Amino acid sequence: MLSDSRVTLLTKLLVVGLLAVSLVSAYLISRRSGPVAALPSLIGVYITLTLAVGVFATSLLDPRFQVAFAFGIVMVGVSMYVTESALVGALFVVVGLFWLGTKGRELT
């Protein structure tokens, strides 16, 4: 069984890897298809940056982190719904808005 310190280290390495992949992906897509086509991948960069801040600077249980992450979920849902007309996108928006409402109330 892994110790807590090893799990923390592996989690931080995973987040750094996710951030690197999302940044490279956004760069390659914007270079190949233009900045408008890169908007969904830029939302992914926002989400992974928010996750990195939550892991490295604050806590994943901090309401400020959860509000920022829920906002990212709403952005993903809107992007999915607009570009693909996917019902899953609408579900992401509903869940994200619910999460924003419940966590936003904790901040006030």
Q: Keywords for this structure?
A:
mainly alpha, 4 helices
SSE arrangement:
Layout: H1 4-33, H2 39-56, H3 63-84, H4 87-107
Keywords: Membrane, Transmembrane, Transmembrane helix
Transmembrane segments: 6-29, 36-61, 67-100
* Run of helices and strands: HHHH
Radius of gyration: 16 Å
Structural class: mainly alpha
Contiguous runs where pLDDT drops below 50 for at least 5 residues? none
Give the termini distance in whole angstroms. 41 Å
- Number of structural units classed as domains: 1
Helical segment tally? 4
Percentage beta strand? under 5%
Mean pLDDT: 89
**Helix content percent band:** over 70%
The biggest beta sheet, please?
A: none
Please tell me what the overall shape is: flat
Q: How many individual β-strands?
A: 0
Written overview of the protein:
With 108 residues, the chain is mostly helical. It has one domain (4-106). It is built from 4 helices and no strands. Helix 3 runs antiparallel to helix 4. It is flat, with a radius of gyration of 16 Å. It starts with a helix and ends with a helix.
Summarize the entry for a quick read.
This protein is mainly α.
